[in-house]
Amino acid sequence: GENVEQHPSTLSVQEGDSAVIKCTYSDSASNYFPWYKQELGKGPQLIIDIRSNVGEKKDQRIAVTLNKTAKHFSLHITETQPEDSAVYFCAASPPLYGNNRLAFGKGNQVVVIP
Amino acid sequence: DSGVTQTPKHLITATGQRVTLRCSPRSGDLSVYWYQQSLDQGLQFLIQYYNGEERAKGNILERFSAQQFPDLHSELNLSSLELGDSALYFCASSVDDRANEQFFGPGTRLTVL
Q: Are the Cβ atoms of A49 and B100 closer than 8 angstroms?
């Protein structure tokens, strides 16, 4: 099955700086790659996603890039703010009809230092 | 707020017991997913239902079962509980069985003593 890995496990950034989290996946057939943000005591929140036919997607301060050849995708957060502090999970989904299971990475703790 | 609701928020029980976790998907969503989140295993897919039918199974133990009812709410039943079953259990929903976007509920924290 799909295996997703995230690096680094913990990332500390100064407020206003950029943060980048990278994920690698194993199944070249995977075609959907979401990013979730999880705050303490809450469920994962979908913040951005990308499909395999697109190389980059941006939504205000966050962006995701996908390199299918290298099988990795990255989350970019610009102008970080304290409220960006959370655990971020990447995931991948194989193109199986009627089966949209997500394979998640282990998560990255992002700490934004005011 | 994702629109997915889960009850109860916390559950404390003893080994050997059986519990039921409940999930109501977002209005209009037909597909429901269950995930288990633990510190050592991360977020693991358990099972998916679409419009009342089981669609896919992941790392779900035989002691666990689930169903989706005609009103589309879903229940996850955990029996013969062990200490290692202590975890956060999340429900997610999507529009149908082809839509990739999954929206998660707030979770149920299960503690087995």
A: yes
Distance from CA of B60 to the nearest CA of A (A): 13
pLDDT in tens, A17-47: 999 999 999 998 898 999 999 999 999 999 9
Burial of B110 (0-12, 13-18, 19+ CB in 10 A): buried
Are residues A91 and B33 in contact, defined by beta-carbon separation less than 8 angstroms?
A: no
Q: What is the DSSP string of B65-94?
A: EEEE-TTS-EEEEE-S--GGG-EEEEEEEE
Interchain contact A101–B (C-beta under 8 A):
yes
Nearest Cα of chain B lies from the Cα of A19 at a distance, in angstroms, of 22
Residue with tokens 């303490």: A40
Q: Using CB atoms, which residue from B42, B56, B106 is nearest to A101? A: B56
Per CB-CB distance under 8 Å, the chain B contacts of A104 are 42-44
Gap from A104 CA to chain B (nearest CA, Å): 6
pLDDT exceeds cutoff 90 at B35: yes
Measured CA to CA in angstroms, residue B108 lies from A49, A80, B36 at distances of 25, 30, 10
Q: What is the pLDDT of residues A57-113, one digit of tens each?
A: 999 999 999 999 999 999 999 999 999 999 999 999 877 655 678 999 999 999 999
Q: Report the distance separating Cα A56 and Cα A46, nearest Å.
A: 17
Question: Tokens 């429901």 correspond to what residue?
Answer: B32
